[in-house]
Amino acid sequence: MDIHLKFALTILFIGLAGCSTLEVKEAQSITDPITETITSPETSKPPVQMSGVNPPMSIIKGKKKLNLMRILDGGICKNDYQGAKGTFLLYADSNDIERIKKQKGAAIFKTFETKIQEISGAILQTAIENTNLGEDPFSLGADDAQQKLASQLMVNFNDAAAAPVIKFQKETTLTIDITAFQPSLVFFQKGCDESKLDGDSKDIAG
């Protein structure tokens, strides 16, 4: 199948080391968790809030509490007609961060940032490739279609994230989790291009 991947990823809270397929904005260090109000560094943008729901500030992974460290916006055009965009969340263990800073110094986190950027892009690409973005003839309308696609992408995203996250943790000893924020997901079925991934665009599914 001829798939033309057009990938855009903007980081709202941290400038990760860039590569040719990523658009990056400068911001804070990976070692600082997001606290209280979640807002974009651009004052013209509203707080990150979708459908009246904010991302959880922390999650439990195994026996560890992970804090929300980054909020990433990204999207991919699977082909000229289909694609998806949304918000993706990075959580990390603050205790691990402090331990690594003492052992290896804070500079090591620049390397971690680059790896996380690469991992996030690859996970999103795999998840969207594995998601059937075709129109569902059994959906009850645009909202129902979006919900079904969001549920499917969440499963595929988590599946795609499992192995890379485990590998990252073994290599760095930093416990992280990367997940999609389901209320933010928007799908394109009747036309997809890079401008729709970066800017405001209406829901055209269904």
Order of helices and strands: EEEEHHHEEH
Which structural category do the helix and sheet elements fall into? alpha+beta
- What does the radius of gyration come to? 17 Å
The major pleated sheet works out as: 6 strands, antiparallel
Average residue pLDDT: 75
Strand content: 15-25%
Helix amount, in percent? 25-40%
Distance between the termini: 23 Å
Total number of beta strands? 6
Low-confidence stretches: 1-27, 36-52, 199-206
Can you characterise this structure?
The structure is a single chain. The longest helix has 31 residues, at 142-172. Strands 1, 2, 3, 4, 5 and 6 form a 6-stranded antiparallel sheet that branches. The protein is elongated. The chain has 206 residues and is an alpha+beta fold. Helices cover 33% and strands 20% of the residues. The protein has helices at 94-104, 108-129, 142-172, 194-198, and strands at 6-11, 58-61, 64-77, 83-92, 176-180, 186-188. Mean pLDDT is 75; it is low at 1-27, 36-52 and 199-206. The protein contains 4 helices and 6 strands.
